[in-house]
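Thread: "does anyone have the structure for this chain?"

Original post by V.I.:
We have the sequence but no experimental structure in hand. Need at least a predicted one for the grant figures.
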Amino acid sequence: MSTTQNNLCIIPARGGSKRIPRKNIKDFLGKPIIAYSIEVALDSGLFSEVMVSTDDEEIAEVAKKYGAKVPFMRTEKTADDFATTMDVLVEVVDKYKKEGKYFKNVCCIYATSPLVSPEILKKSFDVYNEKKFDSLFSVIKYSFPIQRSLSVNDDKITFNYPENANKRSQDLNDSFHDAGQFYWMKENLICKGAVLVTKNTGAYEISELQGQDIDNELDWKLAELKYELLQSIK
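Reply from O.Q.:
Generated one for you, tokens below.
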């Protein structure tokens, strides 16, 4: 069973999105998309603090409107195109420590994750706790075995793994990819040079309906359709 602990939720939301301008506060079915991540974190009851890490004043105002804290602004170093998620987590955790605030666990939820639910967060936290993982994140199963993936060059097909060309798909192991929604991690493992995936990183599987990477306008529409479908079958 999930129990509220001294957990920090960090929602990274820089202002300089390229492929979808103002992506983090773009309207998603009636409200800014970041609002969904904030509200899910608050509704889960898992966090003693929900904060948004941003370099953008407008995003900061939207975040506060929907209940998140913005205790400090992101530095230029973590707001450029080359900063990683871990860079952001390290900066936030270090700033809290300087203020005398320490947390047991940190959950990073991306600002464009409207399909995450409080139930998913709570169940994933249970798995993370019960199995004593260093970190955990959501994954989605590939719908077709990647062991039978193809390459196309000059319109000609070649198998990436020729040894599997004649194998039945059901005889091949399932493969998964990062759902790009959230990451749980112990705060004491967040430091310069740290990585999200360790030898003790767990997975929480979600369905294709529960996840959608949003990199372009078509992805955005698919995410809206999935959200509406999920709401209709609750």
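V.I.: this helps a lot. The chain has one domain: 7-140+178-232.
O.Q.: and The longest helix spans residues 217-232.
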